[in-house]
Specification:
This protein is an alpha/beta fold. It has a single domain, classed as NAD(P)-binding Rossmann-like Domain (Rossmann fold), CATH 3.40.50. The chain has 10 helices and 12 strands. It has helices at about 10-20, 55-75, 105-120, 140-150, 170-185, 200-210, 220-230, 230-235, 245-250, 260-270, and strands at about 1-5, 25-30, 40-45, 80-85, 95, 125-135, 135, 165, 170, 190-195, 200, 240-245. Strands 2-1-3-4-6-10 form a 6-stranded parallel beta sheet, with helices on both faces. Helix 1 (about 10-20) packs across helix 5 and helix 7 packs across helix 8 (about 230-235).
C-alpha cells in the first residue's frame, strides 16, 4: 500500500514510518508544505506545543496544523488519518470523558476544534479518522524524556497538587492504532487513543520514580511553573483530562500496554 505521511520525522511519525516499512508498505515521508496523495494519507504534522506560548508561537501552533490539513484535504485523499489531542476536552477535573463528550475551553481546545473541523472537510469524499492522542510515552524522546530529567537528579515528584488526571498512551500503541485504522475500512470518525487507565499525576510520578529507582516526593510548585511557562503551565501541566478510549475498545482495538507499569517496563527495557 502507498502511504503518504506528513510529520513523518517526528517522535510519533518516525515510529510509524519504521513500522509501515517493516510490514512492506511504500511510505512517502512528506517535507513541510509538500502534499502527495497515497492510498492513505497520515497527518501528524504540527508545531511543538511544549514551550511557553507567546503570541507568535500560538500562531505557529495553529497554522502548522490547520494549513497542513487544509492542503491535504484540498488534494482530495481517499483515506485521511489525522492527529488531534485530548486537549480538545479542556481542563475537566474528575469528569470521565469519552468521544461523546463535548469540547472544552482554552487555547488547546480551540486549536483542536479548528484542526478537526479542517479534517472533517474531507468527509464527503474520504474515510476520515481523527485520533485524539493523550501524552505519548516512548523511549528516547517525547514527554517521557522530559519527565525523567528531574528524577535523574533526585528532584522528581508530582506537578503542582498532583491531583490532575493524565491521559497517556504508549507510542507503540499509537503505531498499532494507526495500523488498525489503515487496515480496517470500518474505522471512521473520532477516537480517543489513550490508555484505558488514565491516572493522577502524583501516581504517575510515583510509578516513574519506582522504575527509575529515584525518589518521587519533591513536587514542582504550581506558582513557579506559571512564572516560567505562563498559560501553557495551566493548560498542559497543572490541569488535565480523564479520557477513556471507549470507541476503540468497543470496536475491537486491543491495547498492548494498557497500564502505566506495562508501558514503563517495556520502555525502560530498551
Amino acid at each position: 500500500m502507498r502511504i503518504a505521511i506528513s510529520g513523518g520525522t517526528g517522535f510519533i511519525g518516525s515510529a510509524v514510518v519504521q513500522r509501515l516499512r517493516e510490514r512492506g508498505d511504500e511510505v512517502i515521508v512528506l517535507r513541510r508544505g509538500e502534499v502527495q496523495i497515497g492510498d492513505v494519507n497520515i497527518n501528524l504534522a504540527g508545531e511543538n506545543i511544549g514551550k511557553r506560548w507567546t503570541r507568535e508561537r500560538k500562531r505557529r501552533i495553529v497554522e502548522s496544523r490547520v494549513d497542513t490539513t487544509n492542503a491535504i484535504v484540498d488534494a482530495r485523499p481517499r483515506v485521511l488519518i489525522n492527529a488531534s489531542a485530548v486537549g480538545f476536552y479542556g481542563p475537566r477535573g474528575d469528569e470521565i470523558l469519552d468521544e461523546s463528550s463535548e469540547g472544552g475551553a482554552g487555547f488547546l481546545a480551540e486549536v483542536t476544534r479548528a484542526w478537526e473541523a479542517t479534517a472533517h472537510r474531507a468527509d464527503d469524499f474520504a474515510r476520515v479518522v481523527i485520533f485524539r492522542f493523550g501524552v505519548v510515552l516512548g523511549a528516547g524522546g517525547g514527554a517521557l524524556k522530559q519527565m525523567m530529567l528531574p528524577f535523574r537528579f533526585g528532584a522528581g515528584g508530582p506537578i503542582g497538587s498532583g491531583r490532575q488526571w493524565m491521559s497517556w498512551i504508549d507510542r507503540q500503541d499509537v503505531v498499532r492504532a494507526i495500523e488498525w485504522a489503515i487496515d480496517n475500512p470500518n474505522v471512521r470518525g473520532v477516537y480517543n487513543i489513550t490508555s484505558p487507565e488514565p491516572l493522577r499525576n502524583r501516581d504517575f510520578a510515583h510509578a516513574l520514580g519506582r522504575v527509575m529507582h529515584r525518589p518521587s516526593i519533591m513536587p514542582a510548585p504550581g506558582f513557579a511553573l506559571r512564572i516560567a511557562l505562563g498559560e501553557m503551565a495551566d493548560e498542559m501541566l497543572l490541569t488535565g483530562q480523564r479520557v477513556v478510549p471507549a470507541r476503540a475498545l468497543r470496536e475491537g482495538f486491543a491495547f498492548r500496554y494498557p497500564t502505566l507499569e506495562s508501558s514503563l517496563a517495556a520502555n525502560f527495557a530498551k
